[in-house]
Design a protein that fits this description.
Length: 114
């Protein structure tokens, strides 16, 4: 009885990996084994950096809110505390956008909680 190797499935699997590795340099996009190892590593970086992106944006928003609030004479931490006491539920993304692009509105919010 001849040996069955299921070439259809293995070819499909290899094509999937090589397609995902398109654009890589040299053997990383041509040789299946090398491409598979590179792709595994890149997937790990992708997973990690989706988390890091959220951290980086939060730090940016906090820096922008802090800069805007200090121009109005209040620190970032005091502003956030006063906002929570006043039941104003604006997230940091919105506050940072207001501080950068619509300073008058940001100023009115800060004056409201002072």
């Amino acid at each position: 009885m001849p040996r069955s190797v299921n070439a259809v499935a293995s070819r499909k699997r290899r094509k999937k990996v090589l397609k995902a590795a398109r654009g890589y340099f040299g053997a990383r996009s041509k040789v299946f084994t090398v491409a598979k190892n590179t792709l595994d590593r890149s997937m790990a970086y992708m997973y990690r950096d989706r988390k890091n992106k959220k951290r980086a944006f939060r730090r940016l928003w906090i820096a922008r809110i802090n800069a805007g609030s200090r121009m109005l004479g209040i620190s970032y931490s005091k502003l956030i505390h006063q906002l929570s006491l006043a039941n104003i539920e604006l997230n940091r993304k919105v506050l940072a956008d207001l501080a950068m692009n619509n300073f008058d509105t940001f100023k009115s919010i800060v004056e409201k909680v002072k």
